[in-house]
């Protein structure tokens, strides 16, 4: 009889865990979030975050699918230079960002105004100075492959001191998935109740 009650309690506990985990995950499964990181050759850096609707079925997320996007830039000493936060569905006219949902990578193999590049930070069309963060490729200018540039002026990409143009260049803009809060909580609940069940079964 004791074994029967133990099995019943175990079954109910497992069902409870599954229900809680399911409810927690359902409530937070409407957004996919990623953190952004970049480090240039001169040790300038960028950190950011973006999200899009998790129900999106396409392979490439563009500004039309984003729900939020923010990025911050830092000098080699780690001091904050500037923050940029974009509002959707109407970000800056110069904003360009493309993310492959299959490979989980930011597209950056072409110039800033193409589907395979990005254009973030200040607006080329309206800002004379600021922080311009973008990809650029032009074989005729000596850049056959796209590079990332972080600049605080509108000087040419192939400047007189290339590759030491201000402020920085090179590197890769990487994206790392942020675990959904519900998934983390669900795992914690499962782990906690599993330990309780083990103690009950042993006793």
UniProtKB/TrEMBL annotation:
Keyword Signal: yes
InterPro entries associated with the record: Ice-binding_C
Signal peptide, first to last residue: 1-31
Highest taxon in the source lineage: Bacteria
Record has Signal as a keyword: yes
Keywords, alphabetical: Signal
Protein name according to UniProt: PEP-CTERM sorting domain-containing protein
């Amino acid at each position: 009889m004791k074994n029967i009650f133990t099995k019943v309690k175990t079954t109910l506990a497992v069902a409870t865990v599954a229900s809680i985990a399911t409810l927690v995950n359902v409530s937070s499964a409407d957004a996919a979030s990623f953190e952004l990181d970049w480090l240039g050759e001169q040790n300038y850096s960028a950190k950011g975050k973006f999200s899009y609707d998790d129900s999106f079925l396409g392979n490439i997320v563009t500004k039309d699918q984003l729900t939020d996007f923010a990025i911050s830039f830092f000098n080699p000493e780690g001091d904050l230079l500037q923050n940029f936060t974009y509002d959707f569905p109407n970000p800056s006219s110069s904003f360009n960002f493309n993310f492959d949902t299959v490979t989980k990578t930011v597209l950056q193999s072409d110039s800033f105004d193409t589907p395979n590049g990005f254009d973030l930070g200040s607006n080329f069309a309206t800002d004379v100075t600021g922080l311009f963060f973008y990809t650029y490729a032009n074989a005729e200018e000596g850049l056959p492959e796209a590079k990332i540039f972080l600049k605080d002026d509108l000087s040419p990409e192939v400047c007189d001191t290339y590759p030491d143009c201000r402020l920085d260049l090179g590197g890769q803009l990487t994206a790392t998935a942020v675990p959904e809060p519900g998934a983390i909580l669900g795992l914690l609940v499962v782990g906690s109740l599993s330990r309780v069940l083990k103690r009950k079964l042993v006793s």
